[in-house]
Amino acid sequence: MKRLLVFILLGPVLFVLCIWVVFLPLASFMEGGAVRYHIEVDSYLAVLFGLMIGGFVLALVDWLAEMLVMRPWFTALIGWAIGALSIGALFNLSQPISWWFIVKGLLVGIPALVCSWLVKRTQSSRASMSADNSVS
């Protein structure tokens, strides 16, 4: 349940921060001016709901990859692939630069990595606390 809360509540916030901190400055620098959004939003609640569904999907991927040692990186890779394939039409860039798909993938990959790392860290600390209690 905590995994879902981390991915659904923290994921969209980190996504927006990645747009403001990573994508927009880099895109503005490369384009030489402002970058326009190519999004028509009827309801910001619908956008938030869509981001929460994306967080749910990544939480499911993280849960399925729980036995992997590099689980945060696997979740980030899946998030990167989702971002690279689905964010292509959201930003209107003047030149079709082939490496923009890497940056667009990072918009989802970085929040997925952070959320998965937080979940793994809380699970490992909880497991070590229960091990310490059982030894005592």
Write a brief caption for the model.
This protein is mainly α and 136 residues long. Helix content is 76%, strand content 3%.
Q: Distance between the terminal alpha carbons, to the nearest Å?
A: 28 Å
- Count of individual beta strands: 2
Poorly predicted runs: none
Shape: elongated
Strand order of the largest sheet: 1-2
Task: Give the SSE string.
Answer: HEHHEH
Which class best fits the helix and strand makeup? Answer: mainly alpha
Strand content: under 5%
Radius of gyration: 17 Å
How many alpha or pi helices? Answer: 4
Instruction: Give the helix proportion (percent range).
Output: over 70%
Which features characterize this protein?
136 residues; mainly alpha; 76% helix; 3% strand
Structure description:
With 136 residues, the chain is an all-alpha fold. Helices cover 76% and strands 3% of the residues. It contains four helices and two strands. The chain has a two-stranded antiparallel sheet with strand order 1-2. The longest helix has 36 residues. It is elongated and about 60 Å long. The mean pLDDT is 78.
